[in-house]
Amino acid sequence: MEEKMKVVSFTSLPVWQQKLIFDADEARRHSSSPYSKFKVGAAIQCSQPNTDPVVVYLGCNVENAMYVVTHAEQAAINEACLNEPEKPYIIAIAVVLPAETIDQHALPCGYCRQWIREFGSDDTLVLGAKLNSAGDIWQVEVVTLEELLPFSFGPNNLGK
Ligand SMILES: [Zn+2]
C-alpha cells in the first residue's frame, strides 16, 4: 500500500473526477430516504479516464417502511450489471453525502466496500464528496479501495 488518503478541494480534482462527483450528486437528488433523511448518491465509472464514450452508472439510496435500505453504491453496481455486456469493472466510484465536519468521512460503508471489491480491485479509485448544509461540496476524500478494504477477500479467493 503506497498512497494515503488525500483530502482535497473539489476544484483541485481532475475534470473527469469532478464530472463523476457531479453525476453522483445528481443521482443523490433521486434518493428516497423518508426515514433516515440521509440522501446519498453514487456514480461508477467503468471506462478509463478521458476516453470516449464515458461510461457511468448511477445509484441512490432507497428505503422502505421496514427500514430496509438499498445503499447508493450497491444501486449503482446493479445498474452497471444491467447495462454492461460482461461483468462490470469499476475504475472509479464517487459518493456524495452530507458530512459537515473534518472527522465525518464521506466514504462507503463496510458493506458497500465489499460490493465495490467484487467489481473493482485494489486500484479502484474512491472519491468521497462531503456536502455542507447548503448542499455545496466543500471537501473531497480521495482513496484507493485497498486503503478502504486492506487485505481483502474477493472473487480471486474463489478463483473468479
Ligand atoms: Zn453502504
Summary, kept brief:
By secondary structure, this protein is α+β, with helices and mostly antiparallel strands.
Description:
The protein is α+β, with helices and mostly antiparallel strands and 160 residues long. The protein has a single domain, classed as Cytidine Deaminase, domain 2 (3-Layer(aba) Sandwich). It is built from four helices and eight strands. The longest helix has 14 residues, at 15-28. It is globular, with a radius of gyration of 15 Å. The two termini are 23 Å apart. The chain binds zinc ion. The site of zinc ion has 6 residues, from α3.
- CATH architecture heading: 3-Layer(aba) Sandwich
Structural class estimated from helices and strands: alpha+beta
**Amino-to-carboxy terminus distance:** 23 Å
CATH superfamily label: Cytidine Deaminase, domain 2
What's the arrangement of strands in the largest beta sheet?
Answer: 1-8-7-6-2-3
| CATH class category | Alpha Beta
SSE topology string: EHEEEEHEHEEH
Characteristics:
160 residues, alpha+beta, Cytidine Deaminase, domain 2, 4 helices, 8 strands, 25% helix, binds zinc ion
